[in-house]
């Protein structure tokens, strides 16, 4: 085998490796975009939300969207107060924080909650 064909083989292998990496990256099943799209599609009834009413499995509705905040409970800056919303329509609690400052949550909190959105409430 001469040097030229060796270089050709190496170049081909490199191209294939790069193509595989790029292709796989495109189809990443857990991409944020896909997760967000799924969250827009899923529709839940209040009956379903009500079943997720514990600190180990906590869903809540805020302004018609459904959130699974189970993993967030531990880091909620307001501590266990968030548990009051598990399995409920927590819109009022979220907007009034009766056990805290009595004020609505901040813009930052509104952005943060989107990370936990799993769908919307059936009409
Ligand atoms: C998706 C759900 C929620 C998210 C993402 C969230 C996020 C946050 C964040 C980021 C803060 C820090 C202060 C701020 O930025 O406003 C906070 C504070 C607080 N949150 Fe939540 N929260 C949620 C649900 C709830 C619920 C259901 C309650 C129930 C009443 C609650 C009660 C509080 C309280 C009492 C504080 C402490 C500040 C105060 O006393 O006003 N949160 N939350």
Structure commentary:
By secondary structure, the chain is an alpha/beta fold. The protein folds into 2 domains: 3-29; 33-121, Cytochrome b5-like heme/steroid binding domain (Flavocytochrome B2, Chain A, domain 1), CATH 3.10.120. Helices cover 43% and strands 17% of the residues. Strands 1, 2, 3, 4, 5 and 6 form a 6-stranded mixed sheet that branches. The N and C termini lie far apart (71 Å). The relative contact order is 0.15. The mean pLDDT is 88. Bound molecules: protoporphyrin IX containing FE. Protoporphyrin IX containing FE binds at residues 67, 69, 76-78, 81-82, 84-85, 90, 93-94, 97, 99-101, 103, 105-106, 108-109, 112-113, 116. Protoporphyrin IX containing FE is lined by residues 67, 69, 76-78, 81-82, 84-85, 90, 93-94, 97, 99-101, 103, 105-106, 108-109, 112-113, 116.
Question: What share of residues are in beta strands?
Answer: 15-25%
Question: What average pLDDT do the residues reach?
Answer: 88
Whole-number count of domains: 2
Could you give a short account of the major beta sheet? 6 strands, mixed
Q: Number of helical runs?
A: 5
Question: Which stretches of 5+ consecutive residues score pLDDT under 50?
Answer: none
Helical fraction equals 40-55%
Determine the CATH superfamily of the largest domain: Cytochrome b5-like heme/steroid binding domain
